[in-house]
Write a structure and sequence with these properties.
Length: about 1200
């Protein structure tokens, strides 16, 4: 039973988990059951890593190796180590100077995240990463006619001749030269006793390395036998023995081609990356012993494309010794550009990434692809090959074998579907079920038919069953069920629209199913994995084989094979049925044979691995680069096939390959095409237009047209010898990259950056706010918002268990940061608009956001600030999926929401930024695939949105949502990180000219970017998905992320992990300039457009405290300060006048003993108009507080100066000379 669980899991994306079912399952409602099924489906995607472990690559010297095995501090234990030093047989002049690279698997009491962080600080460490879990990617010889990939004669409705050219391979590579060529199968092992494989196994001749035919790195023994089936299937595709009167034939038929079995995946198809390192180390050591490993087949993967360095090192190490690493591209129907897994996504000249093709030379419906990331395609649908256990597979049996093995068998080549029953099946649902014949069939017949089951108007929770009655005979052996199925739905959705299963039922006396299938049965089966299931999700060109034992003994009774559809999403479904059978009583499983069909890029990759081996054998070359180039040229060109070579593997090209086009770059303002086989001349077209070449060689062509720069180009080359080659390239121009500002600790994913015009801040999804401290080169935490404060009406326990995220990038407005926070509670999602005030240093929640703006039903709204108000723009209706046109405005002063003018068309996931006095809504989606929405511009003056004319063309037209990091720049916006056709990926938009234009930079980052403009710089950081830091234990005082990291690594110095970069931009800040006389004005400088500015004049020392005149933007203003909202450059002027004191006399002569009262007049803008009086010589003359001057006798003949000083602090005064007679 266990075998069939594993088999279905990789064969048909079944959901099979090895735990017991909880009793509570049977009591759940139908709706709850659907939710549980979706959770189980979603859960199968999780990969993860071994907690507390890490893989580290580090440098040592030969002498250093004697002293210590690894540069690790106390508390870190080495669990396993691999030394990739140079060949020890070769002597060097100074062994102590030899640099060696080692890899270690280490453990610690710390978390994996902290362990990796600590390791990266050591200067000897080259790379450190988690020990990621890996998984398989999936599925005159009597059965050769079913091997359409080898020889396509129209099987399964395919096109004759659309195969790998097996006959040509066989004719040229089936002999023996006595020189062994090895293909290493890094997988679940190989069935070493299989009748089609046992004579094709490599034999180990090393006295040092264990394992006769390879090694088991999972169980750490010398027996790499397969206990899952996947590796055996791959091995059979490569080299199953032809002409032995048994089974199938592999693509490599020279007796010199041997299979090395390296087991890294266990009986459930799971493994660890450390075991792959073990396998590559084994290959490397065998190469050092002289073994010619020509190809390494990797039909597994992990979704951690950013952790490439370690695997790339291994691939290139063995590559330089002759091995090409062949990798399955993946089975997610995705473009691998930016989404590739390891190892298929590793950028190396020793890697071939392989997509899967179908029987008509098209891309298989499930296959990943990439015009710039996947090299070639090979057949991957319904590939018949060897497996490790007996498999009931009547489709491939002869009539005699069917008669011997089947008590019931039905195909539909005669068009008769009358035996399929719909009534009495116990179906649940109000949809309609119809059965008809169909020309889409499975098998080798040239014009076969199948039964088509159409289900219309199905609802979530429905179960629809059709069944084929048969008479069961009594027996004591296991009874097996087998059927071929192809399932599809009207739309593809995440986690699948429906599930299909086949089950053996007992019929009652009326000929109806006695115990119909229920949703509880399905949920329990998904947990226990008793019955294999396959997904129905969008269009499919794949036939899946469901085969498993149904009963341990049989009786004489009426039974039926039932085909059931379990509905998870409201859709229409189509199921095609062929070759349904039940095994005969008394027949043992050993009579079935060990051969089965499977589909996937896992099946395509071995064909290419075999082709590499054939090439190496045929040309006698151990040069991996040369063999790789040859195989890339061995393709049959298929128009619009989205792979680099545009071709499917074709052995007919073994001795006469195509030209290959491997890359394009911009040098000196011109496009340079690189590859092989261009000859000395020919013609080049780009996007259908002939282009002139300024130089042409066999490996390089330089095009004259400079207008091609920053464009996406479909290149067609026709060489002088008549060979053609095509390819798609992005001719991006720009300086190699941005300027590095500094490196600090990893920034957690899920947050966003915001600027106040002077500094950059980062708000993470846990509502921790940081400021970028460039001087200290760190992000310092300013404040954190408690979850219970952000979301009202939710119990703290629920919030603690919830997942937080941001539904918008944060925005800055009037000394505060605003953001839309989300809490996923599992059963619903709560949203809240929160803000942090720099003025009050506190957080707050805008309570009415959800109810007033419809925020509960929307997602992907744009949050922005415009002229002092907060706007929530557009979004997508979560229930209907419709794009919203609504715009809501929040007045901070009135603390109320209002509806603002709506958009002319719905938008979601857009970005809104104020530039000058205009609000620009850009990017996102308008609901049209392959189209970047045109900018919408709004102003308070017009009170309406205007759709602009300028357009951007995306490089990738397969997307619906287009995003970039966006910031304000002069007269518009600056963008980083969106690949466009014509403007590169660093560009700007001029709102006055309504024009996009490229900047002289390029952003060559695969990671997500966060950032914004800060003055005249565009600051940003590449971030990757990672586990969050535990902020709950941080103090509430200001703490830096870097300080947290340092404390986690025993206060040792921390090396960089996350880098801040910058590009120069023309500043989009609006400025307040000050012009003053006898004083200053505070508040001058640069501001984000729309911010509130307060200016305060201040007199210079000894001048009056306020200006006599003050103007802002040419307008006279009053008061000791002035506040206004700035949308453009403003000049504030103030003239400060000094107090003037005038006396009523200019000269004065007095007789000794006489008096005279002086009068002082004070001219000032202030209120104090009095003076203080003072004499220069009181011995000769005095002056009273009222200005009365009295001349003394002692002063006869003398002159005295009398002063009148203003009391307003200005130090202004008047003086008069008094002569005394």
């Amino acid at each position: 039973m266990r075998y069939f669980k594993r088999w279905a899991a990789w064969l048909m994306s079944a959901v099979l988990l090895g735990t017991s079912a909880p009793a509570a399952v049977s009591a759940a409602s139908g709706k709850d059951q659907v939710t549980e099924m979706k959770k189980l489906l979603s859960g199968r995607q999780e990969a993860g890593y071994e907690e507390g472990e890490a893989l580290v690559m580090y440098r040592t010297t030969a002498s250093g190796q004697k002293g210590r095995s690894a540069p690790f501090s106390s508390g870190i234990k080495v669990k396993q180590a691999w030394n990739f030093s140079a060949d020890t047989k070769k002597k060097t002049r100074s062994a102590s100077q030899n640099s060696a690279v080692s890899i270690a698997r280490v453990t610690s009491q710390k978390s994996t995240e902290d362990l990796v962080r600590q390791l990266k600080k050591d200067p000897q460490v080259i790379a450190a990463q988690p020990n990621y879990k890996i998984r398989i990617l999936g599925g005159s010889d009597p059965y050769f006619d079913f091997q359409w990939a080898n020889k396509n004669s129209g099987q399964n409705g395919g096109s004759t001749g659309k195969d790998v050219g097996y006959d040509q391979f066989y004719d040229k590579t089936s002999g023996s030269k006595g020189k062994e060529t090895v293909v290493a199968v890094v997988d679940t092992g190989i069935d070493l006793e299989h009748e089609d494989l046992r004579d094709r196994l490599w034999t180990n001749r090393s006295d040092v390395l264990y394992g006769r035919h390879g090694y088991d790195f999972v169980n750490h023994d010398a027996d790499p036998s397969d206990d899952y089936g996947h590796g055996t299937h791959c091995a059979g595709i490569i080299a199953a023995q032809a002409g032995n009167g048994r089974g199938v034939a592999g693509i490599s038929q020279s007796s010199d081609v041997k299979l090395m079995a390296l087991k890294v995946l266990d009986e459930d198809g799971d493994g660890e990356l450390s075991d792959v390192i073990d396998a590559y180390y084994y290959i490397y050591k065998q190469q050092m012993e002289g073994v010619n490993v020509a190809a390494i087949n990797n039909s597994w993967g992990i979704d951690e494309a950013d952790e490439q360095e370690l695997m790339k090192y291994l691939i290139e190490l063995v590559g330089k010794k002759g091995a090409v690493t062949v990798c399955a591209a993946g089975n997610d129907s995705e473009d691998n550009e930016g989404n590739a897994s390891i190892p298929a996504g590793i950028d190396s000249d020793y890697v071939i990434s392989v997509a899967a093709s179908n029987e008509k030379d098209g891309l298989a419906s499930y296959s990943n692809y990439g015009k710039e990331s996947v090299h070639m395609a090979a057949p991957g649908n319904q590939i018949l090959s060897t497996v490790n256990e007996d498999c009931f597979n009547p489709s491939i049996y002869s009539d005699g074998e069917r008669n011997s093995n089947c008590q019931f068998y039905k195909n539909y080549n005669d068009g008769d579907v009358s035996e399929i029953k719909t009534e009495g099946s116990g179906s649940i649902g109000k949809g309609t079920v119809a059965v008809s014949e169909d020309s889409d069939y499975f098998g080798k017949e040239s014009a076969g038919k199948s039964a088509k089951i159409s289900v219309k108007n199905a609802e979530p929770g429905d179960i629809y069953t059709v069944y084929l009655p048969y008479d069961s005979a009594k027996g004591s052996t296991d009874s097996y069920l087998s059927t071929m199925l192809k399932a599809s739905s009207s739309l593809a959705v995440e986690d699948g629209a429906g599930l299909v299963m086949a089950k053996d039922y007992k019929l009652d006396e009326e000929g109806q199913i006695e115990d119909p299938l229920t949703s509880e049965d399905v949920t329990i089966n998904m947990i226990t994995g008793t019955i294999p299931m396959m997904a129905a999700n969008g269009e499919s060109d794949v036939w899946g084989h469901l085969s498993y034992p149904t009963r341990s003994t049989t009786k004489n009774e009426k039974r039926a094979v039932g085909i059931s559809l379990v509905v998870l999403e409201k859709q229409d479904f189509t199921i095609r049925l062929d070759d349904t059978a039940v095994s005969k009583a008394g027949v043992l499983s050993r009579d079935f044979g060990k051969y089965d069909f499977s589909s996937g890029t896992s099946m395509a990759a071995p064909l290419v691995s075999g082709a590499v081996a054939n090439t190496s054998w045929y040309y006698g070359k151990k040069d991996a680069l040369s063999n790789r180039e040859t195989v890339l040229g061995m393709t049959r060109t298929v128009k619009d096939l989205p792979v680099i070579t545009r071709g499917v593997l074709d052995g007919r090209k073994l001795s006469d390959q195509n030209a290959i086009l491997t890359g394009a770059a911009v040098s000196g303002g011109r496009v340079v095409l690189s590859g092989k086989g261009f000859g000395t001349g020919g013609t080049v077209k780009v996007n259908g237009k002939a282009e002139k070449a300024v130089s042409w060689s066999d490996t390089k062509i330089v095009l004259e047209n400079r207008q091609l720069v920053n464009r996406v180009g479909e290149v067609e080359i026709l060489t002088g010898s008549g060979k053609s080659v095509t390819g798609s390239f992005y001719f991006i121009k720009g300086k190699n990259g941005p300027k590095k500002v500094f490196s600090a600790e990893d920034i957690t994913d899920g947050g966003g950056a915001v600027s106040d015009g002077r500094k950059m801040y980062y708000l993470d999804k846990e509502l921790n706010l940081y400021v970028m401290d460039e001087e200290e080169q760190e992000f310092s935490r300013i404040s954190s918002m408690a979850r219970e404060k952000a979301f009202a009406g939710i119990k703290k326990g629920e919030l603690d268990r919830s997942d937080l995220s941001l539904d918008s990038a944060p925005v800055y407005c009037d000394r505060a940061v605003y953001a839309i926070a989300e809490a996923d509670l599992g059963y619903e999602t709560k949203r809240s608009l929160v803000s942090y005030s720099f003025q009050t240093k506190s957080w707050s929640r805008v309570d009415s956001y959800v109810t007033k703006t419809g925020g509960a039903k929307l997602e992907g709204s744009a949050l922005t600030a415009y002229n002092g108000k907060i706007y929530v723009i557009g979004g997508r209706n979560k229930k209907t999926g419709a794009m919203e046109k609504s715009v809501f405005c929040y007045d901070k002063e009135k603390k109320q929401w209002s509806k603002a003018p709506g958009l002319p068309e719905g938008r979601c996931q857009s970005v809104a930024v104020q530039s000058g006095n205009q609000l620009i809504l850009t990017l996102g989606s308008s609901g049209k695939k392959g189209e970047i929405p045109k900018n919408l511009v709004y102003s308070d003056k017009s009170r309406k949105w205007v759709k602009k004319s300028a357009s951007l063309i995306p490089k990738n037209k397969g997307e619906e949502i287009y995003t970039a990091i966006v910031g304000v720049c002069r007269d518009g916006l600056a963008y980083v990180g969106l690949n466009t056709d014509g403007c590169g990926n660093v560009f700007r938009y001029s709102v006055s000219k309504d024009r996009f234009e490229a900047m002289d930079y390029q952003a060559a980052f695969k990671e997500d970017l966060i950032g914004t403009t800060v003055g005249s710089r565009f600051l940003f950081m590449p971030v990757t998905e990672q586990e969050d830091f535990d902020y709950k234990n941080l103090n509430r005082k200001k703490t830096s992320v870097q300080a947290k990291a340092q404390s986690d690594v025993d206060d040792e110095d921390y090396d960089d992990s996350c880098t801040v970069y910058s590009y120069p931009v023309t500043s989009g800040l609006v400025t307040v300039k000050a012009k003053t006389k006898h004083g200053t004005i505070s508040g001058k400088g640069g501001y984000l457009p729309g911010q509130k500015v307060t200016v305060k004049p201040k007199a210079a020392k000894y001048y009056c405290y306020k200006p006599s005149t003050m103007k802002a933007a040419g307008k006279k203003v009053k008061g000791s300060s002035y506040s206004f909202r700035i949308t453009g450059n403003v000049t504030v002027s103030a003239v400060f006048k000094k107090t003037v004191v005038k006396l009523n006399k200019k000269k004065l002569t007095l007789k000794a003993g006489d008096k005279y009262r002086l009068k002082a007049k004070v001219k000032t803008v202030g209120k104090k108009k009095s003076v203080t009086w003072k004499t220069s010589k009181s011995k000769y003359a005095t002056v009273s507080k009222k200005g009365v001057v009295k001349a003394k006798k002692a002063g006869r003949g003398k002159t005295v100066t009398i002063y009148a000083k203003a009391k307003d602090g200005s130090r202004s005064y008047a003086k008069i000379k008094v002569k005394i007679r």
